[in-house]
Amino acid sequence: MNFLEQKIAAEGKVLSESVLKVDSFLNHQVDPQLMQKIGEEFAKLFSDAGITKIVTLESSGIAPAVMTGLRLNVPVVFARKRKSLTLVDGLYSAEVHSFTKRETNEISVSKDYLTSDDVVLILDDFLANGQAVLGLMDIVNQAGAKLVGVGIVIEKGFQQGGQLLREKGIRVESLAIIDSLTNGEVTFKREATHV
Ligand code: G4P
């Protein structure tokens, strides 16, 4: 098991056959040392890609994205899910439907922070059905920026997002891929990036 798989095995809680709770280090409390290692790993994987910007989605994507941005020495833009008081004009927007939460959010990024000169790495905490990543890709496309890949902290390999994106020819690097959550146990797919 890599460092992330070990952390998930030690602290992850299986809530159902499809939902893993990792509130102790990723979705509520954040483990800075772990985030730093995650950032180093993504930076290593994408070091030759000429990335100029990392794009993520609030809120849990921000910690791993910032650590990666620190390593790659590039800014991090997080798409907002709620309308901002100060962010009203000049936005790229996309609709993201969450099957897990049964809600649709409009996500947006200011045109000031994403341009056709950008080479983008999309980062997110979880990959389930891929809707969040597709929404972020829509925004990257609207800006005319170039997407070089997607970095995911935890991919749920038994849901369709990973396959959907890889079939589109997108480079997806997941640091842990969960094969199943049956019988209250987490099992990992061996194809996760080994670190
Ligand atoms: P999708 O984008 O891949 O289609 O995912 P989906 O709609 O199913 O997930 C919506 C939200 O639920 C996302 O967080 C996603 O990260 C999270 N999520 C999905 N599956 C799991 C899981 O098994 N465990 C945990 N802990 N989270 C999961 P979000 O609403 O953007 O939340 P946050 O970033 O504000 O924390």
UniProtKB/TrEMBL annotation:
5-phospho-alpha-D-ribose 1-diphosphate binds at residues 128-132. Pfam families: Pribosyltran (PF00156). It comes from the Bacteria. Its EC number is 2.4.2.22. InterPro entries: PRTase-like (IPR029057), PRTase_dom (IPR000836), Pur/Pyrimidine_PRTase (IPR050118), Xanthine_PRibTrfase (IPR010079). NCBIfam families: PRK09219.1, XPRTase. Homodimer. This is Xanthine phosphoribosyltransferase. It comes from Lederbergia graminis.
